[in-house]
Amino acid sequence: MSQKRKTKEEIVAEYLTGNYTYRELGLKYDIPFRSICDWVLEYQGRKPTWREKMKRKREKETVMKGPELPNEVKLLQKELKKQQLHNKLLEEIINIANKETGTDWKKKLGTKQ
């Protein structure tokens, strides 16, 4: 039997001896190393099903989105406080100008009063 025609089981057994890495065996037998990794996981009973993969993917996405939302909320709250303070400042400037000049600065231009 040639080296390139070994069965999956023989390649997995060769990996499990600890003498080779997935990449080395992939180069040796001209097989993608990821396939060898999958075979080993399948042999060991650790290869996740597609349902487990999808579940992990969803969990990972929710974990990734989780911290971003509170951070975004904090930024928006900070921006809101800044704008409220800016608005109060402008209103006080208008009030001071009203007192000093005796005119109504809040009056809309172009309206008859």
Q: What report would you give on this structure?
A:
The longest helix is centred in the C-terminal third of the chain and has 52 residues. The protein is mainly alpha-helical. The relative contact order is 0.05. The chain has four helices and no strands. It has a domain of 47 residues. Helix 1 crosses helix 3 and helix 2 crosses helix 3.
Explain the layout of strands and helices.
Blueprint: H1 8-16, H2 22-29, H3 33-44, H4 50-101
Helix pairs in contact: 1-3, 2-3
**Average pLDDT metric:** 84
Which residues sit in consecutive blocks of at least 5 with pLDDT less than 50?
Answer: none
Residues in helix, %: over 70%
In whole angstroms, how far apart are the ends?
104 Å
Number of strand elements: 0
- What's the Cα radius of gyration? 35 Å
Order of helices and strands: HHHH
| Number of helical stretches of at least 4 residues | 4
| Largest beta-sheet characterization | none
β-strand amount: under 5%
Could you say which overall geometry the principal axes of the C-alpha atoms support? Answer: rod-shaped
- Structural category is mainly alpha
Index terms:
single chain; 113 residues; mainly alpha; 4 helices; rod-shaped
The gist of it:
The chain has helices at residues 8-16, 22-29, 33-44, 50-101.
